[in-house]
Fold:
Amino acid sequence: MSLRNITFNAAFAALLLAPTLAFAHTGVGGASGFAHGFSHPMSGLDHLLAMVMVGVTAWQLGGRATWLLPSTFVLVMAFGGALGVGGISIPFVETGIALSVVVLGAIVAFGIQAPVAIACGLVGLFAVFHGHAHGSEMPAAAGALSYASGFMIATALLHGLGLALGYLVGRFGDSRGPLFARAAGGIATVAGLGLLTGLI
Structure:
């Protein structure tokens, strides 16, 4: 079995198992905070699309980007989450989140091959906005650590979904694969524009 198949199968298995793990025994101790944190990235189209697009972008860039982009996003998002939990405001959070969907979708749609350092800087910038939104919307009764663990794991799984989508698209071959990936990026860009203008 090739490395690509192993990666895809592992990501797929994690996505199937994660909801069961995340929502077991909710309401008991820190589990309630974890469940709230885990569900938060899944509950908004903006978060969902941006995080999946990070995974697809990582797949398109290949090499070190396949783990550096998702890792950068999750780590910097944790920093943004800490700012949100601490009540430290940053401007244009919702605009930044909507723009992340537009920009990341456009990168996928046009197949832009940016240097890994620039790509990491870009996703890191957007991660601050996403993390701040997660942190500032933490329920009062949720423990900060368990809540943060929940949204970080959910985010990593969404990145994994994006990578798995990329690998799946890659199986279509050189002719149709890029077309499907770019169509997905185009759809995300249009949705992001809808979010940015308030139409969605």
Q: What stands out?
A: The two ends are 42 Å apart (CA to CA).
